[in-house]
């Protein structure tokens, strides 16, 4: 029994040495200690198992076994793929349509913005004009007294003032 344990330990040490060499090369290439830590952890687990008289741990992965699909399952799968394909096409079409609508809206908003900027510019010019006219009129009033409606600049009177002026 001791002989078998010694043989297993020798076998493990040979495998472990080659694993340590591989892990240290990998750690050096990647700049991380993770490969060495994995090998160390695996060796400690193996040593504990062997000291307890258990077998050497061997992990083997095999691909999962697949069973062939029935005709019904194949038909269902084809139908699902077809539905998914149609849904993806509809989604792409909606996305393109939304992008076209967004571009149209952007164009119209940019045009509207330019129109509003022009309106602002015109209104500011009109305001400056009327402020100038008002300052001229007020400076004349200060020098000569209040002006008669005929002397005043047309357009500065409101409709109510014109209406009242008719009855005065």
Write the layout of secondary structure elements.
Elements: H1 2-30, H2 34-51, H3 71-144, H4 159-167
Helix pairs in contact: 1-2
Give a quick account of the main beta sheet: strands, pairing sense, barrel closure: none
Strand segment tally: 0
Which structural category do the helix and sheet elements fall into?
A: mainly alpha
Work out the helix count. 4
Q: Kindly report how far apart the N and C termini lie.
A: 134 Å
Q: Please, what is the average pLDDT?
A: 80
Helix content: over 70%
Weakly predicted, low-confidence segments: 1-8
Strand proportion, as a percent range, falls in under 5%
Instruction: Please tell me how large the radius of gyration is.
Output: 47 Å
Q: What is the string of SSEs from the N terminus onward?
A: HHHH
Dominant shape? elongated
In short:
The protein has four helices and no strands. The chain is mainly α and 168 residues long.
Explain the overall architecture.
With 168 residues, the protein is mainly α. 77% of the residues lie in helices and 0% in strands. It contains four helices and no strands.
Keywords:
168 residues; 4 helices
């Amino acid at each position: 029994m001791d002989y078998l344990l010694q043989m297993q330990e020798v076998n493990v040490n040979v495998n472990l040495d080659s694993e340590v060499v591989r892990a240290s090369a990998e750690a050096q290439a990647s700049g991380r200690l993770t490969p060495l830590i994995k090998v160390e952890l695996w060796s400690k687990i193996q040593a504990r198992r062997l000291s307890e008289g258990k077998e050497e741990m061997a992990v083997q992965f095999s691909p999962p076994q697949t069973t062939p699909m029935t005709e019904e399952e194949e038909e269902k799968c084809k139908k699902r793929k077809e539905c998914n394909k149609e849904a993806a096409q509809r989604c792409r079409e909606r996305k393109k349509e939304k992008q076209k609508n967004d571009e149209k809206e952007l164009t119209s908003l940019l045009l509207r913005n330019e129109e509003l900027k022009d309106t602002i510019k015109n209104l500011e010019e009109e305001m400056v004009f009327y402020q100038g006219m008002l300052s001229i009129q007020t400076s004349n009033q200060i020098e000569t007294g209040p002006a008669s409606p005929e002397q005043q600049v047309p357009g500065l009177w409101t409709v109510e003032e014109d209406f009242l002026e008719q009855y005065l």
